[in-house]
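STRUCTURE:
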């Protein structure tokens, strides 16, 4: 028997995404950040040598123009600064966290870990490992599928 589960899958993923967005908004507001900034700060925390805007875009799978529009806000908040220039032009310069940015990143990490612990408390470590491996495979498959030209009637 063939079972159609795409609608259920899509609904579950959408529901989780909505809840994550609500949580992000709730705990980024006191930091003066938007939820879109969180992963960028996290990435910069993990790359103390800094990342260019292009690298930040690639690692976060975020549109480069969105990063360009939003980056000024993180700089104005004092969380991010432009590191030592690699070349004399602005393009390609590394973005690094300031001391305030590092503190915010640590706070984000603490909150994220707490949320992660609460939502996965009733799931065994083995099941979580399978879940994350499965999500990684699904993401690769969806990425590949979005790159293909889909036929008119059926995938």
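SEQUENCE:
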């Amino acid at each position: 028997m063939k079972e159609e589960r795409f609608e259920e899958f899509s609904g579950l993923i959408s529901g989780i995404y909505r809840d994550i967005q609500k949580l992000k908004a709730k705990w980024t507001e006191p930091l003066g950040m938007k939820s879109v900034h969180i992963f960028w700060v996290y990435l910069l925390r993990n790359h103390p040598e800094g990342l260019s805007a292009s690298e930040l875009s690639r690692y976060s799978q975020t549109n480069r123009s969105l990063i360009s529009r939003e980056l000024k806000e993180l700089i104005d908040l004092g969380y991010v600064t432009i590191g030592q220039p690699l070349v004399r032009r602005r393009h390609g310069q590394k973005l690094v966290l300031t001391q305030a940015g590092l503190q915010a990143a640590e706070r984000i990490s603490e909150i994220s870990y707490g949320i992660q612990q609460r939502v996965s408390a009733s799931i065994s470590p083995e099941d979580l490992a399978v879940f994350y491996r499965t999500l990684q495979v699904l993401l690769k498959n969806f990425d590949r599928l979005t790159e293909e030209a889909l036929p008119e009637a059926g995938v």
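REMARK: Residues 6-28 form the longest helix (23 residues).
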